Amino acid sequence: MAKKDTKNVGFSMELDAHDRLYYIAKYEGRSLSGQIQYLIQKCIREFEKENGRISDEDIKNVLS
Q1: Considering its fold, how many domains does the chain have in total?
Q2: What is the model's pLDDT at position 4?
Q3: Where are the alpha helices (DSSP H) in the chain?
């Protein structure tokens, strides 16, 4: 099986936030996971719009 270009990330969140985010996800026709992925991508786009593109070198420096 080929390795996926994804990373599984687990985290905790308050129940009220979970329920509200789940509601929004269903309202917008997404799964909860899809909604979280959408919000992460939106955050990245907004950050890069304001601060410039995050380069592979920037990522490498943070991960090392």
Answers
A1: 1
A2: 81
A3: 15-27, 32-51, 56-63
